[in-house]
Amino acid sequence: MDLQTITYLVVGATFAVYIGIAFWARARTTGDFYIAGGGVHPIANGMATGADWMSAASFISMAGLIAFMGYDASVYLMGWTGGYVLLAMLLAPYLRKFGKFTVPEFIGDRYYSQTARIVAVICLIVASITYVIGQMKGIGVAFGRFLEVPYDVGLYIGMGIVFFYAVLGGMKGITYTQIAQYVVLIFAYTIPAIFISLQLTGNPLPQLGLGSTMADGSGMHMLDKLNGTLTDLGFADYTSQKGSTLNIALLTMSLMIGTAGLPHVIVRFFTVPKVRDARASAGWALVFIAILYTTAPAVGAMARLNLTNTIQVAEVGSPEGNLVYEERPSWFKNWEKTGLLKFEDKNGDGRIQYYDDKNKDFAAKAEAYGWKGNEMVKVDRDIMVLANPEIANLPNWVIALVAAGGLAAALSTAAGLLLAISSAISHDLLKGVFVKDINEKNELMASRIAMGGAIAVAGYLGLNPPGFAAQVVALAFGLAAASLFPALMMGIFNKKMNRHGAVAGMLVGLVSTLVYIFVYKGWFFIPDTNNLPNNAANWVFGIQPEAFGAVGAILNFATAYVVSKVTAAPPEHIQHLVEDIRVPRGAGTATGH
Q1: Which of 242, 351, 444, 488 has its CB surrounded by the most CB atoms within 10 Å?
Q2: Which of 68, 60, 61 is closest to 301 using CA atoms?
């Protein structure tokens, strides 16, 4: 059976399962729509949380960034996994104990202010819409490949499917759909990694294969082989640090605290019956997440080695040193159809020259070979995980499984984010502020309309994303870090923090981070931003836009502290409320204190 047919069957079967689950578990009440009725088992919730959190950025894009950035991309591993631990320990149990549906609802009640609630909604929508853009990029890449259509067509198809099962099912449908999606995505990620690790190193565990010797009998370690292959073509050493230490530290911090401030992950801890279950589901989620995150470095490194070896088939500079374009393999032709892989024959020799033409020393040598520049004019990093099994000539069923996994990862997180956006609009703005007497039926309808509008906006912005999926998601994490995380932390651990400080801090953090992103990344709705100073030489102190969220968070904390010191303290009942959130019931009863 040919690859296209198998892919249709595998992806079609998984989608039938998702849609069937959404219909079976469709939301009939606002409790079902917002928190799945609050009765999800901790293990099931941990699996759903893993799928919700491991987005297209984790499945499709992170290994692609690791493949091309090498050591510097380790910040995504450290930041996102460390952030989840931070969320599980410092925020989730306390927010679950507070017992509200949404993050803006907590902020509004904790800071006794409708203004604070509205500002929190704005922060949530800005961060979540940015995050959904990254998911839409992943959806467009995955659908474009498996349907063999242009990226934008794949994006439109994916938008329609997300709209159907997310709008129908709400949190209840999304939760059980995400459990199925986790199973699909984790098998789709690990099975090809095992195959490829065996091919290259003879070790079935990718985590160990990354540090093993090559299976070709050369005795070289895999990373040494990769370093040598890339430096021979003028690329930077794979395992060396290339960015500034300050930027790496701030990006790691931004991703960590951004993770802890993400509303679509936080709300998952409201779907379990008790606070103890929230802690348990956080632990299970970390186990499920670790399976993919410990595999990603090997996937990225092996994908880069396979890609480079396929194009550069002999010694650099020799007449046979490059792949003949007309003899390119089928995977190359398939990805060309999506527009995410492009070749330009600059010297007319019919062969593919693939090297770093920005390296002046190597470019000078390349001219002696008759090369006129790097002819791989586009290799979208987001294709690497999906293309890797094809490059490695794995069985068709494995390739089809990876396509299904990529779609599962993108769709699961997109659904969770869209629910967070719709809940903020219908529950926090309509019911909480503007139409307080709205009935449950109309609130549910408003949620679904808001979700449909969010899908349309995110899809439009996804046509011209400001970076690769993981980079766009990093921007979203930075926005959450700069705006929501400080307000949540101070709301739980500082009973003296008042509404004036919280509102001022959120606005300063959000605005400062948005301004920095817009200056160095460009406005999301302007496709051509090549004239903007988006390079390390122009960044302030070398801080990239994805890392500025940590600076925004510092400005948020500082502003909130100063403003709270010069304004009235919170009412006594609010201060007692904060203490009740942190202190377990019955604490001190044994000693009488």
Answers
A1: 488
A2: 68
